[in-house]
Amino acid sequence: MLKTRIAIIGGSGLEKLFEKPEQSIIKTPYGTAPPVSIGKVGGKQVAILSRHGPNHSVPPHRINYRASIWALHTLGVRRILATNAVGAINRDFKLGQIAVPHDFVDFTKARCTTFYDEAPVTHVDFSQPYCPQMRKLLLDAARKTGLHVWDKAVMVCTEGPRLETPAEIEMFRRLGCDIVGMTGFPEVVLARELEMCYASACYVSNMAAGIRKGLSAHEVSRVSKQIMPKLEKLLIESVRGLPMERKEACQCASALRSARFE
User: What is this structure's pTM?
Assistant: First the structure.
């Protein structure tokens, strides 16, 4: 298998960023990961993983997140740029805008959320849930490409596959959440547990329940298709500006140093 230090995780279709990708099927201790495509983006070798699998066939609550992150770790990935479709809870956020979350709230119910079910007991620090260096990179790239970007946002992750109720969205709003999605967690946690940097560019594909009367998957798909060309430019610009080596100040690379009882 080819090795690479950079990966992009997103929905289906991002593979078209490559001209001639090489695809790998990687088996992990947690099952077989979705196909990983490897090629050049922004002059650098990058792995792209579509979390929902071929043809967007796996719903968010059935994604094998551990297999996905472990597969990228096996390839030598140290940094992950993610994209997520989200609904806006904060009424200031508008359709098609980008938010780079700085924190998250987990409201999932049945997902495997850690690699450390056994000894050594491991408690990874999440004072800064997303890599600050990667966040800055995404923000700079978004501004450079002319996108309207929010530099702070709290993302709440729900189990899915159903959409949220107005009462749930009102609860999340009172908790201080700005956006809601179904795929941002536990990717961010699993990446940190393997000392990988992770940051996400979330694009607002809909206004959350209660803010508008109703929502259809077709409407989400329509908005997503409109924003995708801009999102692709953002990813290319981000990869282009990404240093190959992590700086010493990056705490993601030493996340396990003080996390274990041994």
Answer: 0.93
* CA nearest to 137, candidates 38, 8, 256, 39: 8
Residue 26 to residue 75: CA distance in whole angstroms: 9
Q: In degrees, to the nearest 5, what angle opens at C-alpha 107 toward C-alphas 8 and 186?
A: 30
193: number of CA atoms within 13 Å, CB side?
Answer: 19
Token pair belonging to 146: 């002319």
What distances in angstroms separate CA 152 from CA 90, 97, 156, one per listed residue? 12, 13, 13
**Are the CB atoms for 81 and 201 separated by under 8 Å?**
yes
pLDDT tens string 6-42:
999 997 667 677 767 788 899 999 999 999 999 988 8
Q: Which helix (H) or strand (E) holds 78?
A: none
CB 83, CB 235: distance < 8 Å: yes
Which sequence spans correspond to the domains of the chain? 6-254
Nearest-angstrom CA–CA distance, 8 and 83: 8
Residues 146-195: tens digit of each pLDDT: 899 999 999 999 999 999 999 999 999 999 999 999 999 999 999 999 99
CATH number of 6-254: 3.40.50.1580
DSSP H/E element including 147: none
